[in-house]
Amino acid sequence: MAATASTTTAFAAPLVLGTKRSSTCINVEPAHRLPRYATPRMVQSEVKPTTSTATTKTTPATKPKTDVNLDWANLGFQYRETAGYVQCSYRNGAWGALEQIDEPYLRMHVGATALHYGQSCFEGLKAFRRADNSVGVFRVRDNAKRLCSSADRLMIPQVPEELFITAVLEAIRLNAAYVPPYGTKGALYVRPLLFGSGAKIGLQTSDEFTFLVMVTPVGDYYRGGLAPVTAALMNSHDRAAPRGVGHVKVAGNYAADLQPATQMKAAGYPINLYLDAQNRRTVEEFGTSNFFAFKDNAYVTPDSPSILPSITNRTLATLAQDFGMTVQKRPVDIDELKEFDAIGACGTAVIITAVSRIAMGDGTLLEIGDNPDVVCERMKRLYEEVRAIQYGEVEDRHGWCEIVKLD
Ligand SMILES: Cc1ncc(COP(=O)(O)O)c(C=O)c1O
Questions:
Q1: Are residue 193 and residue 296 in the same domain, yes or no?
Q2: Are residues 65 and 185 located together in one domain of the fold?
Q3: Which residue, 131, 123, 129, is CA-closest to 72?
Q4: Which amino acids bring their CB within 6 angstroms of ligand 1?
Q5: Residue in 288, 313, 382 to alter for ligand 1 test, most ligand atoms within 8 A of Cβ
Q6: How far away, in angstroms, is 193 Cα from ligand 1 center?
Q7: Which atom of ligand 1 is nearest to the CA of 289?
Q8: How confident is the model at residue 222 (pLDDT cuts 50, 70, 90)?
Q9: Domain check: are 82 and 147 in the same one?
Q10: Which atom of ligand 1 is found nearest the CA of 253?
Q11: Sign of the CA dihedral running 245, 248, 252, 253
């Protein structure tokens, strides 16, 4: 299938510090020089341009690497360099061709609205190696839809669903060698990013945008099995204002959480639980994951317009129903925390974090359930079921996985 093209410009060679450009001459060791920008290559794409009438051109993409040798058992959750990423630009009212970039750098205008005004949103999903060596990606269409809602809120043109999916699949294909082997319980973390890349100085939307998909291999977070943690209830900070941007995955939400989350981690609480910003009465979500709880036979999760709709939460709620539980999406008052049998935080990165204790911020420590030192069987079962679906070990009865064509 032909690649789609509108206007694609090869990056100009960058200036190097310490050459003519600099008025004060700084001696820069070669290792500290600005990186060279690789020329982008068009990649095979089945996506039609949104409005462009430009002719279609295809250049074969670089052959993916196959000789990656990583310590798969000890990857952790951190950035690791890969073969590259894919990107696409929006100019003159249309998305252009998808390009492959063979290095981890991005050349952008210093006046880009993403840098100055936070006109930037992103997604997070994972691809998994299966026993037959194929690779499956989990719920990619749901991430495509959520990115559209984030884009709308930030006045960024939507990335059409098929372009999103093609870009994700191309990024995985390019980095197939970085998908951890089956059995190591790792995954390829996929990070689509969408931002205003055109220059504006007054506050207004950009007229140029960049959509890219980068990836990095990550390890099994719970090598010793699910372990319970103590969360901190946030009394000192709010995450999202009513009618603000809490319901979308925009960069600024995470910048705002950095300071309180870092302080709480230093105090021994790996995750922090936010309340509604208006009344500080109802539970919202953790800094980077949704809240859920079990109460008798119910899977309970807060209903609020300022929570990010977690795809993992939807997955768990569906599976809880499959297992005969009822699902309650409703406001959760802080006084109800002590009545829950178990509490969890959920998100793509780890699926579930069992929360067995909550530091309430007034010096009291709330213990959840009968035995806070043990993760309950229902939570383990949900966790194992999600993993089994992701690794293709049980039937994908809800149609959540797409298989990536590798050749
Ligand atoms: C604020 C917030 N809530 C919830 C989630 C979990 O969402 P998902 O399950 O789609 O990863 C995330 C992670 O993306 C998040 O950043």
A1: no
A2: yes
A3: 129
A4: 124, 285, 288-290, 308, 310-313, 347-348
A5: 288
A6: 15
A7: 4
A8: confident
A9: yes
A10: 1
A11: positive
Alpha-carbon gap, residue 50 to 52, rounded angstroms: 6
Based on the fold, state whether residues 214 and 234 are members of the same structural domain.
no
Please give the span between the terminal C-alpha atoms of the chain, in angstroms, as a whole number: 14
Query: Which structure tokens are listed for 380?
Result: 């383990």
- Give, as one character, the DSSP assignment of residue 199: B
Distance 363 CA to ligand 1 centre (A): 29
- Identify the residue whose tokens are 């006046």: 111
Same domain, 128 and 83: yes
**What's the 308 CA to ligand 1 centre distance in angstroms?**
6
Whether this model's pTM surpasses 0.85:
yes
Domain count, the chain: 2
Nearest CA to ligand 1 atom 3: 289
* Cα 6 to ligand 1 centre (Å): 34
CATH number at residue 189: 3.30.470.10
46-64 pLDDT per residue, tens: 444 333 333 333 344 555 5
Contacts of 327 (CB under 8 A, 6+ apart): 298, 299, 301, 317, 320, 321
Q: Where are the beta strands (DSSP E) in 298-384?
A: 298-302, 326-330, 342-347, 351-359, 365-367
Q: Report residue 51 as tokens.
A: 């409005």
Q: Is residue 380 part of a domain?
A: no
Atom of ligand 1 nearest to the CA of 285: 3
For the stretch 105-118, pLDDT in tens is 999 999 999 999 99
Point out the ligand 1 atom lying closest to the alpha carbon of residue 312: 9
Amino acid at position 384, single letter:
E
SS3 309: coil
Alpha-helical (H) ranges within 220-367 are 251-266, 311-322
Asked if residue 14 has pLDDT above 50, the reply is: no
The parent domain of residue 305 ranges over 229-374
Which atom belonging to ligand 1 lies closest to the Cα atom of 348?
11
Residues 234, 357 share a domain: yes
Rounded mean pLDDT, 169-195 = 97
The ligand 1 atom at the shortest distance from the C-alpha of residue 287 is 1
**Ligand 1 centroid distance, CA of 7 (Å):** 34
The reported pLDDT for the residue numbered 39 is 56
- Does residue 272 surpass a pLDDT of 60? yes
Return the residue whose CA atom lies nearest to atom 5 of ligand 1. Answer: 289
Residues 65 and 205 in one domain: yes
